[in-house]
TrEMBL record:
InterPro entries from the UniProt entry: SecB-like_sf (IPR035958)
Residue ranges, compositional bias (Basic and acidic residues): 156-169
Protein name (record): Preprotein translocase subunit SecB
Biased composition regions of type Basic residues, renumbered to the chain: 172-181
Ranges for region Disordered: 156-181
Length: 181
């Protein structure tokens, strides 16, 4: 299975202050990323994924590290293939949690809300390639058609054209997507 629409995008204007995120990112060093939990379920009858809708959900959660200059963030991911018309019956569900750990240089220059803003998106962005590889690898090992998670992009919104459809799409920051196979 290959997800149609090959990017997952977060846009400015989505409630995230990218200037704050950039300021913190310039003082942050990525120390490590590792898988801490995973759960995989597969329907042995419906293994080809035809007619399934893909749902992708992600989020992050700060974990205290005991030191002001250390930041640990748990990144939670879920992808599921649900049969058309049946929200309870699935072909595949993969959940994973990764720990993303940073050292923050000059942490006293940032407020708690600055760090929280950084932790909402930067760890997801850093962890996304690990998540993509995990899903592709695990589906292959399960003998399923490999599933390729879309790319994750952070982009600036288009200039305001006065088109209300563009304005509503600029303002949306969905953390859940559905793609039909």
């Amino acid at each position: 299975m290959t997800a149609k629409g090959n990017d997952k995008s977060i846009k400015e204007g989505s409630g995230l202050d990218f200037k704050v995120i950039q300021r913190v990112a310039e003082k942050a060093s990525l120390e490590d990323i590792f898988l801490i939990d995973a759960e995989i379920k597969s329907d042995p009858v419906h293994r080809d994924g035809r007619g399934a809708t893909l749902r992708l959900v992600f989020g992050s959660d700060i974990r205290p590290k005991g030191s002001i200059d250390k930041l640990a963030v748990l990144c939670n991911f879920l992808v599921s293939a649900v049969k058309e018309g049946d929200k309870e019956d699935f072909s595949l569900e993969i959940k994973a949690t990764f720990s993303v750990n940073y050292k923050i240089h000059s942490p006293d220059t940032f407020s708690a809300s600055d760090i929280e803003m950084f932790a909402k998106i930067n760890p997801i962005y850093n962890c996304w390639p690990y998540w993509r590889e995990f899903v592709q690898n695990i589906t292959a090992r399960m003998g399923l058609p490999t599933l390729t998670i879309p790319l994750f992009k952070i982009s600036k919104p288009m200039e305001d054209s006065g088109n209300p459809e563009e304005k509503s799409s600029k303002a949306s920051n969905r953390k859940s997507t559905s793609k039909s196979e």
